[in-house]
Every structure is written in C-alpha cells, then in structure tokens.
Protein 1
Amino acid sequence: MIFTVVSSNYHLELNPSDLGIYDRVIVQDVIKSIAQTQQFDVNARHQFKV
C-alpha cells in the first residue's frame, strides 16, 4: 500500500482516510517504526519522549 507522508525535522503528517479500512494498523506501524529508530545526529539538542 502506498501513502503520502509529509515530514519535517519535528513533525510527520499523514492522512489516515487515504488508507481505507487499515488506517489504524498502518498508523500504529508508522509510529512504532519511527519510535524504534534513533536520531542520526548524536549531538542533537532535542531528545524526544516516546
């Protein structure tokens, strides 16, 4: 399934209505995959809580 995600350094935007009946599952998967990745910049000023 293909869907559009608009992102910046601090925000992600996706439209669950584009995902049909699987919107909850896909949004959960996107959140899980982002939460499991580490920041690339080890000297980043902001530490994010998940």
Note: Residues 5-37 form one domain.
Protein 2
Amino acid sequence: MRKHRRFAAILTAGLLAVTPCVSAGVAFAADETYSITINPAENDKAEHTYEAYQIFDGDLSTEGEDKILSNIVWGPGIDSSKTAALETAIKTNIFTDLTDTTAAKIAEKLKDASAAQVRQFADLIGSVGTDGKYLYLSTTKVTDATAGNGDAAVIANCDPGYYLVKDADNSLDGVESSAYTRFILRVVGDATANAKAVLPTLDKKITSSNQNDDGTANTAAIGEKVNYELTSAVPNMEGYNKYYFVINDDLSDGLSFNNDVKVYVNGAADPIASNLYEVQQGTDADGHTFQIVFKDFYTNFNNKAGQAIRVTYSATLDEDAKITNEGNPNTANLTYSNNPNYNYTGENEPGSGEPKGVTPEKTVKTYTTAVKVKKVDESNKALTGAEFTLTGADNCVKTVIVISDEFVAGTGSDATYYKLADGTFTEEEPASADDPNYADTTTKYKKTQTATTKDTSTDGVTVSCEVGTDGIAVFKGLGKGTYTLTESKTPTNYNTIEPIEFTIGTGTTQPDMTSANWSITSDETFSEADNMFVVTIKNVKGSTLPETGGIGTKLFYLFGGMLAVGSGVVLVTKKRMANIEK
C-alpha cells in the first residue's frame, strides 16, 4: 500500500487537552499496546464509565522523534457494514471538497481541520438513530474504565490508531456535579487527556441581619423578611446545541416566598430584564417551591462564559415557623445540560429523558425561639388566673404567637390526665376512688393547646396572653429588641410582680451548623425539648411590704440569635429572672 503522510497533530472534539506520552527514538513492536488516561474536570466528583472505540487503524513506525501512522483504514470500532454511509455523510456534512472518501483521506483531512469540524466529526461518528442505536459505531470497543471521586480513569490495551473516547450512554443522567465528555485522539504511545469541561456550581447564603459569618444561618422573628443570595457563573457551552439553566428552590413550611427575584450578571448594578427568565410556582415548578428558568440560555449567554450570575430574593418567616433544632431551612440546587454530544430539543427546560446534571444542594437555615412564662405559687405549683402583657420596642417584631395549654374533660384515648385537689393536673392514676389528693378520681382530661397569632404595628408590639390551666403562657417568634413583660392580671389574693425587662440580641458564632444549640448562662432553665427559655414567676399571697431587694424592675438579657455556619446559639445572661413577691 501507498504510505500516507504522517499526522503529528492530536485531534480533539474541543473538549479536552490531550498530551501524548512517548519518548523519542523508541522502537515499537507491532503487537505493543498503550493506555489512555482521562483526568476529570476539577470539580467533577462523579463516577465516570469511559468507552473507547478505535475508529482508525494503521501501522505504527518512527521517524526521528515523530511517531507515524500509515496505511490507515477504518478501525474495529466502526461498523464495517456502515462505512460507505459514513463516508458519504462526512463528505456531505463536513468535508464537502473531498473527492476520495477513504479512511486514509478522511484522516489526512482531519489533520488540518478546524476545531468545529473535528467536533462535527466526533458528533457524526457517535450519532444515534431514531431506534436509539449507533448509526456507525460497532459493538467492538476497548475494555471500559471506571473512576470517580476525582480520580483518573485508565483505558488499557489500546492498539495504535485514532480513538473516540466517551462517557457511556445514560451513565451520568441526573448525577450531581457531572458532565459527559467525548473526544478523539491519536494513540501512538501512552496518552493522557485532561477534561476541560467546567461544571456549573451554585452557592447560597442569607444576607439579612443577624446572620452568621458565612451566611448559612440566621435568626429572625415571625413576620420578618429573610433575604437570600444565590451565586453561580455562566458555563462554557462549547459543543452544545442548546443549554438548560434552571434554579430549583425549596422553602420549608415556615417560610413564605415573596416572589421578588432579581438576576444580576457580570457584577452589574442593575438586574437583567425579567423577560430573560421565568419564575415558576405551583404545578409548573416540578415539585419545588419555585424555579427560576432561564429562557434560551444558550443564545442569550453563550458569549458570556465565566461571567458571574447573582440572584436575590426573599421569604418571610411565617406562623408555621419551627423553633426546634430543625430550624426553617431553605434549599436550592441547579439543573443544567451536561451532555454536549446530545441534540437537545426542549424549549427552556430538559425534556423527558434528556440528559441533565444537578449541582449539590445548598441549604441555609433560619432559627427563631420563644419565651415560656410559667406561673407558680410559693409551693411551685401551677397557678392559674394570671395574664401577661408583652411590650416591645420599635420594629423589633412584626408578629407574635401566644400559646397556652388548657385541660378539658374528655373520654377518648387522648384523655389521660386527672385533676388534683390543688388545681393542677397529672397523668398518675388515683390510689383509690376517694383519694384526697384528687379533685375528681373519675373524670379524665385531655391537654389541648391554643395558639393565637397577634399582628403588631411597626411602632412596637403589645400582646397579652392568659396562662393556661397548667400556669404556662408562651410568646413565640420574638425578634431582636428590648421587651417588657408585665403581669396585667394577677390571681386573686396574690401580689402583682414588678415588670420584667429583657433584651434579645446577638450572641457568639459557632463553627458548625447542625442544630439550634441553645444555651443559657444563668440559674434559669432552658428546655431543649422545645427550644424555649423558661421564665418561672413565683407569686405568694398578700403581704403589706416586700422584703429588701424584692421590688423594682428586673433586667435580664437573652443573647442569642447568631447562628454560625448552621448552629443556633442563644446565650442568656441575667441579673435576675425569677421574680418572687413575699
């Protein structure tokens, strides 16, 4: 056969930088094989399964430092029954000036081809018919190589020639932080290919007041607005026919979306036009609270690769807010096109079965707490008939939920309490039918909770709550500010306590976000079960004068609200919380 000119150029599909690893002056045996090492993109931690199809075969020889492939023919990776159709397709769609469409001439043409033509060639070689089968590739391939977690994959036992290397079909659909790759390279020795695909990322933080250092958590009052910021960048869309870029956001039940999305690109002070994206809610949001779907992303942003994308929006902490360690999370991720080898046909979102990638979820949390007022007598037994009024400073809170427990007679399985002679309740059964410690040994009661939402004006908060039959009232959702708790109704024959002033402020940041690890640095108690501060207020029956030190405004501070990286911490220091009138 006629010896053809050598090919010194490495061919790629524009997705990889390929480096042949060969030494000058080495004599190659005819049966020697080589390896292809594929290094993943920097932030690609997905497990990849790579396939290698030999598309050109030839004889390997050396000439000085050059490695030469001659006598080039179609390789075993090409279906021999489809070579004529493939050659016609190459002449029609890529190299229209070809007069000789043999494998050798096509390989020679590729040496001087543009990056776009090489991509076209790779796309054509790997194209799939309407039946889902390859149009030109055979079932013959080199042994697959699998690697993940950022490790390199090595395909061994490659004969000299040209190879199409690609991710296995459907192997990365819906996989976090992943992108398909496909490239062509010449193997005349051990070769290394470095993936250039830059995977999209998405970060999220809270930008409201009272957030921690990195914005992963904050504290807020019910009715307060929480501001969020998402950051990403325009990806490199080389090789794609279109590109999907969809932000998915999920708000917990305690957060209400305010539908005030704004998108900024490349650090601009003004947001982009709202007609470049659509905010979808309800049934259109694919199970999320809302989605931000960028319209015709490829056309509008293809020339902006690398430019920053910043999205802002807000939600309001509402009456369903949780005060538990769970907090009130907001989670977001990004759905994006991840296969440049695929011909996407959807409009602005992936169609059914179309390959896509997702970024890892990013979650931030908003915490809130409550103050539980417990009214007891001199024997520390629950005292009913008291009412407390909470007065707050300007703009410290928009909404307060007051909660009290009641015991009502019942006959169902949830009626498990008995009323004691002193007016309190217990689940312990009476020792006998005439047990003197019980007000009634036959009637059972069930415990019910009453929660009332009290909206307040912007110039301050004043709400009242009567303690329940267990002597407890709860003020939930208090924000940063100074408050005064006043006993506005006192049980008959008992003295009224002096007003109590307290301040909720900012506390110490913590290094890890796992829960709201509330703490209290005083002799008062904190209920870890419900994340409330328990203020026990003791009243005694009338006396004419209080003892020294038993009168006056008592001041205590609830230092909390600052949750760093996710841990919620409230530190409480007080001069005196228990108010006892003697």
Note: Confidence is low (pLDDT under 50) at residues 1-26, 506-526, 543-582.
